[in-house]
UniProtKB/TrEMBL annotation:
PANTHER family: HPR1, THO COMPLEX SUBUNIT 1. This is Predicted protein. Residues 621-642 have a biased composition (Low complexity). Transmembrane segments: none annotated. Residues 433-443 have a biased composition (Pro residues).
Amino acid sequence: MSCEFERQLAAVQERLAGVVSSSDDVASAAPRALSGSAPNLVVADDGTPGAENTSDAKQLVEQALCCVLHELVVDAGEARAPFMEYAGREGGKKKKVKASSASLPRLLDLSLTLSEWGVCDHGVVFTVLEQLVECCTIADAQDVFTWIEGKRTRLNADVLWRRGKLIMLRTCNDLLRRLSKTNDATLRGRVLLLLSSLYALSERSALNLAGNYNRANVTTLDELEVGTNGAEQGGGGGKGKGKGDDDNEDEDAMETDDAAKTNAPVVDVRFYKTFWSLQTFFQNPNVALGVAGGWDAFYAAFQAVLDNFETHRLDASDETAATTAEESALGVKYLTAAPLLQLQLRDPAFRRSFLLQCAILLGHCEGPPALPKVKRDQVAKAKARVMAATAATPPNARGVEFAEFVAAALKREVYWVGWKKDNCKDFQRASEPRPPPKPPPPVMRKRPRLGTKQPAVPPEKRVKLGNPELDRLWNLSVDNASSLREKKAEETSMATFLQPVLDDMDPEAQIEEAYKQKNDKVFVWKALRMIAKENLSAFSKLGTDDMEAVVPGLLGVEPPGGGGEKSEPEPEPEPEPEPEPTGGGEEEEEEGKAEDAAKTESGEKGGKPRDGDGDGDGDGDAAAAVAKAVEALEAKVAADAAARSDEGNVDDASMEQEAEDLPE
């Protein structure tokens, strides 16, 4: 049985090694290589495992992947080549090539692809990564984590992460124990950022719920005694002064004078012990501040150090040194040797690190849980001094930016502590409904000038056909239906239209005769048409009278500049009966001809007019007679109109007399 398993393992391992060493795509080469390599191991072209695949086949693939990894790691170690750049064996020789064709990245891609397909267990890719990180040096681990960061989205898929999150956590914790906090601070940060991105925000495995502090970080001080002048002296175990004690005092006094001349901080034993004693409070705040007098001791030491910082401020000459120190000071732990403190206080990075510790401690004193023996008013003053000193630390632009960052971080820390106090409730919330789409912005149109005609079609709806004339014709109306309807302009009333005539008649207007409306032929023509529709009597008067004489009576208004009461509009006269002619044989003859022509036109009994023979050959003569009769009638009407205009209107009495004289 064992021989059969080893034989199948060797066959699958050989197939997988061939996929790793080839240059084909892993996703396309893996199904062809694995199908048929062992019983009950079938993989479709799209990566779907066959229904006949058993758990033994999955374990076989997992074991084969680990064996291929072991061979590549051994070969890379023998070749003294970086793991992620080693290309494996080709033709019995080992060679080092670029990372794009390296074997270990292809093996990791193959493990990830097979885990996603389900050909092997979904957590196999994390197992392969764990074994690889265990064999790697620190430099190779950086390359491995570069690959992990590139595949982070695929590794965080639910089907893979459920089986491999504990393996990944164990791998990262083992690597963090190997990394130095001083030399490998960058890689440690990358590992922590990777874990924070893979695990959910509400994951409680990485939270310090108990609030424990790092008590292993112990600060060791030099054993010094305070001399008569307060200067530093070596730890002599309490021995008395020797012969050269006076010389030492003179040298200490000279060093103090030199420090004062160079504006450097004066460091003595008292200040040395005061400065480094604050690390006790930073290491375990609750214990150090909870005892009687703990806060008073901290506040006194804090005030002394801040007074020294404010007295001996850093100038612009320290900016270059500050930039160089910050670039190389990643995760450092400063030495506590007494002779170094005076130089350290002139380092902006050192000051900024100390001020950051003070800001974190003061933020802890402000937030919950409140420490009973802490004075809140002193905490607020101390925090304000820390922020001011941080902003004043050169370079000034970076100091202000760093102070703002610290303030924002402390504000978020308050919410973080409250979240842990509430037993780390889940941050995932129900998705809010999508807001309704915003209405489109209003179309801004240009305000037309006064007096310009508005186009029938708005500019945004105009259609352009490529020809100016076609564009004009097409855009005469908004749609076809409106273009079929005739647009009637609003009719102007006669009083409004004739008002300019009244304005011209006003003497105060002082309008010259040549510029009056009655001399405008177009206006007169329009006025005649309008008056003819409204009042025929007034229209007949316009043939002889001036327009200014007729318009006031027509409109029923008083002529401008004239006296008298307002006159009523002249009514249209009723048709008058024609008076009996008193003489004139020509008029009687014309009336007789008109009556004969009417009889000839009407015919007998409504029939056609006939000649003397009755055969209807006189049609042309009858038409000529009718035309002559019409002309005679028109001449008579014109003569009557002229007679009335010369003689005046006939009064009612004369009309009644004439009516009585008419024969019955």
